[in-house]
Every structure is written in C-alpha cells, then in structure tokens.
Automatic annotation (TrEMBL):
Protein source organism: Bacteroides finegoldii
Domain Carbamoyl-phosphate synthase small subunit N-terminal: 2-141
GO biological process, one term: 'de novo' UMP biosynthetic process
Pfam family, one: GATase
Gene name of the encoded protein: carA
Protein name (database record): Carbamoyl phosphate synthase small chain
Amino acid sequence: MRNVTLILDDGSRFSGKSFGYEKPVAGEVVFNTAMTGYPESLTDPSYAGQLMTLTYPLVGNYGVPPFTIEPNGLATFMESEKIHAEAIIVSDYSYEYSHWNAVESLGDWLKREKVPGITGIDTRELTKVLREHGVMMGKIVFENEELRMKNEEFPSYSDINYVDQVSCKEIIHYFPSGTSSHSAANSSFFIPHSSLKKVVLVDCGVKTNIIRCLLKRNVEVIRVPWDYDYNGLEFDGLFISNGPGDPDTCDAAVQNIRKAMANEKLPIFGICMGNQLLSKAGGAKIYKLKYGHRSHNQPVRMVGTERCFITSQNHGYAVDNNTLSADWEPLFINMNDGSNEGIKHKRNPWFSAQFHPEAASGPTDTEFLFDEFVKLL
Ligand SMILES: NC(=O)CC[C@H](N)C(=O)O
C-alpha cells in the first residue's frame, strides 16, 4: 500500500495509505458526518471539486452496489453516472465487505473510476482543523511524487463553474412509464402533447433520486442544461436542482428563472443549489459557510411552526436571510446555527429547500415537499 500525504492549504499534513486509484488530486477538503451512504455521496454531482472526508471511522464494510441502468437511463442505485468527488478520505478502510446488494469493494470501484481513496487518516483531527479554520483547499500527494507537486498552486474552488462541467449537454425527456428520449440542446425542442403534467428540471448537477421522486408522482420531466432558456416551452412547473460549486458562477440560470417569474402562477421548486439560485433570482445574497452542512441529521424548523425535521444535507454556501426582499420569507431554519434552509414567496407558488428532501442517502422525512410541488402543478 503506497504512502500518501494530504496537505492542506495552511500547511497541515496528514499521512495515510492509498486504497483507491493512484493519482495526485487537489480540491476543497470537506467533511461529512453521515454514518452510511458512500455510494450515493460519491456519485452526488454536488461533490465535484471536493475531497470528501468521512468522519464515521469504518468505511467500506458494505461494499458497492451494481452500476445497473434502468430503461430510462438512470442508474438504479447511484445518484449519477459516475463518481464526482475528487477523492475520499477515511480513517479505517474495511477491505472485507458484506451486503446482499454488493458486487465489488469500495477500493476496486475507486480504482475502476480512477478516483483516489486514502485510509489511516486521523479524520477526527482533520475535521477539528477544518472546523477551526473553515474548509480549505488540499491536495493528495503520493510517496516519491512530492517534489513534482510541491510548487503546484492550489486551484481556487469558487472561481470554477463546476455546474457547467456536470450538467447534461442535451435535453432529456423522462416519462413516468419508465422510458426517456434525448434531443440536442440547440435543436428547436418542443414538448409533445400528453395528458400528464410537465416539469422542466434545470440540471445544475441533479441527483437521480430527484428525478425518481418526480417520476414517482406521475409527472413528465424535461431535464435541460443549466444555462438553457426554457422560457419558450410549454410546461406546468419549474424545478431547479442541486449542483456543485459557487452559485455566483451560475448567472445564466438566475436570469432564466427571473424570466420564468413573469408568470406569477408558474409553480417553482428548488433544492440546495436550487434554493440558492431561486433566492438570487429573488434578489437575495449568498455567503459561504465556515465549514458547510454535510450529514444525515441536520435539524431544520419550518418557520412559523414548531415542526422540526431531520434532514440530509450537502452544502457549503447559504442564503443570507437578511437580504430576502419583502416578497419572500424563510421557509426553514437550521436549528444548529440559525442559517437559512429554504425560502418561500409570500403570494406566488415558489419555494425551495436548502436540504435534500429526496435524501439518497439519508432520512426521507421531508419527501412530502415533492407532493406539495406536484399538487401545485
Ligand atoms: N448540494 C448542493 O446543491 C450544493 C449547493 C452549493 N454547491 C453549495 O455547496 O452550497
């Protein structure tokens, strides 16, 4: 097992061993405190550009499910078509695995997808450093390659438009019957008539379980590239997806949402990046959290009620509640740090959640938000 060093932007170093693909990588080092869910998290496009540290110490013991694809083109058990995180950092990788649905080990999957995995890292100490300092860039350097990497600059996470890298490049039309069709984004696309409600899904890096949650509610989903102007199409609702990176790099999406808002009756629902882009379209500002929310047990309160939900989360930016205009109000608030967890318009059917109601992985307690959206269509 090759020795590796994780070097943070502030100079801190952590030594470990490689159990994945051997390739030096750099990215924003973040931590996730969930106890399970590495197949879903690794394939969540919102982790693009990030080195994912898992604080739960024992990782890999339930292996990896098969990468089977459904007739509609969606992966059965994964959240996208490949691993998007730059690397995974764990304390104690389990070489043995056992699970009814496992077909390979985490290490073999990482090697196949050319993604580094490192074990033997004191993830408790690493997380303490990130909590004190805030998230920072880091690189994984392999033994005997230190010199080559030494003078390489850390890229700046917030300057890169990761959404553009992970969004679909063509329009994909999904039907609840379990099929799909593709059209080039520059063709004159029209939505064929059917009796079902149609949702345009702005793909900033959508997780497949969001598409599954919509299809399960018997709506057609028209998935479009993040910067596609869908405003000439005929549809019943607009959905804005999760996605990686800084929402300030996604201006084209914000402009299109603003145009869509000319129709005050059009239902709009956003998740995570979708909450941030809807907020920006409404005039609010976004800031970067010190170390983000990445876990399965983030408590949020529905504003105006005493109802609290345990949610699955993965975000590093947040909407500044103080910058919401008079037409908008917070819909959910984080019980740990008081930050915004969703917004809603006071008159129009427009709302969003900073957390993940589709879970995958994590608790499904807030999946009812999809029901609320579909009822509005
Ligand atoms: N999962 C997401 O959509 C994350 C949104 C954004 N990239 C953030 O980190 O805040």
